[in-house]
Write a structure and sequence with these properties.
Strands 2-1-3-4-6-5-10 form a seven-stranded mixed sheet, with helices on both faces. A five-stranded mixed sheet has the order 7-9-8-11-12, sandwiched between helices. It starts with a helix and ends in a 5-residue tail after the last helix. The protein folds into two domains: about 160 residues, Thiamin diphosphate (ThDP)-binding fold, Pyr/PP domains (Rossmann fold), CATH 3.40.50; about 130 residues, Rossmann fold. By secondary structure, it is of the alpha/beta class. The chain is about 40% helix and about 20% strand. The protein is built from 13 helices and twelve strands.
């Protein structure tokens, strides 16, 4: 069964909080590996670390609301041979501790797993201070740092498994906004590899994280108009799977990107930087522009056209078919 078929299958409307899959997998790994520890910034509840703390009370370090210190503690633990998962709300982890992420983790090449919890606009009603929409751009700019955003709970589990043994610094988004399963039973997360969830030769929709399910919905709608859309799950933004992107550029001639993040510097920027130099094609970059307002997550996504309808219209624009 393809991912698109899975979305239409009985029970496919069920959605999931990826923090649950993240926490469950972290506990399993910690049972087998005593080096695994968690570090947080007074965010045990929002990072879903309550069960971890209960089972491993001496392996969770709560530094309080001190994100720079939190990342430094994580780097120190990694230097001492531990495997720290540093967990905090995305805007505070990346915004307040960028220097420590750059110098203590990436430059030093310590195996710290930086977990941006509740990323994107998951904290919608708390407003612009809590929207984590610049993190892709900020983290992509740091050398030697892997940047990834799993698309559903199964891929989140696999990404956590990989990160625990990667031996290098990683930034990973862990979605709070509930999303459906989009990867099939045989799917395996591979860092730096894009998975093609749907084939198509008319236009390519490259999406990341919470946008992947919406890209599949858009492809279904486009198919009803006789448009075959290829859907790519770009679960790793850095390093980017250049071969798959360039193949899509050559074979479809048009690319739409979608991300719950600012339009500059993230997925759209990464794809544009590549195709502009290697195989230029028309593009539409869908994301957040300016400061996102206050409102629930679904309202905010619709506000910026980060939904199936917005993706369909972007594809039509590239194809010159206009509004329907």
């Amino acid at each position: 069964m393809s991912a698109a078929e899975a979305l239409r299958a009985p029970g496919a409307s069920e959605t999931f909080d990826c923090r649950i899959a993240f926490a469950d997998e972290l506990i399993k790994l910690a049972r087998a590996d005593k080096r695994i520890v968690a570090v947080c910034n007074d965010s045990i509840g929002s990072s879903n670390l309550g069960a971890f703390q209960k089972e491993f009370p001496d392996r969770l370090v709560n530094v309080g609301i001190a994100e720079q210190n939190m990342v430094g503690v994580g780097a120190g633990l990694a230097n001492a041979g531990m495997v720290p998962f540093v967990c905090a709300a995305g805007p505070f982890l990346t915004g307040r501790a960028t220097e420590q992420i750059k110098a203590d983790c990436a430059y030093s090449q310590y195996p710290v797993v930086l977990c941006g919890m509740s990323p994107g606009m998951a904290y919608g009603e708390l407003g612009p201070t809590h929207h984590s929409v610049e993190d892709f751009a900020w983290m992509r700019a740091i050398a030697e740092l892997t940047v990834m955003a799993p698309a559903d709970p199964a891929e989140t589990r696999q990404a956590v498994q990989w990160a625990a043994g990667a031996g290098k610094p990683v930034y990973m988004r862990v979605a709070r906004f509930k999303i459906p399963a989009v990867t099939g039973a045989g799917h395996r997360f591979e860092p730096g590899k894009i998975s093609t969830l749907r084939e198509g030769g008319d236009v390519c929709i490259a999406a990341v994280g919470t946008m992947v399910s919406r890209a599949l919905e858009a492809a279904d709608l486009l198919a009803q108009e006789g448009i075959a859309a290829r859907v790519l799950n770009v679960s790793t933004l850095k390093p980017l799977d250049e071969d798959t992107i360039l193949k899509a550029a050559r074979e479809t001639g048009r690319i739409v990107t979608a991300e719950e993040a600012v339009c500059s510097g993230g997925l759209g920027g990464a794809v544009a930087e590549l195709v502009a130099q290697r195989h230029p094609v028309p593009m539409r970059i869908l994301g957040v522009s300016g400061f996102a307002p206050t409102g629930d997550t679904q309202f905010l996504l619709d506000h910026f056209g980060l939904n199936a309808a917005g993706l369909v219209q972007a594809a039509r624009d590239l194809l010159g078919t206009g509004a329907r």
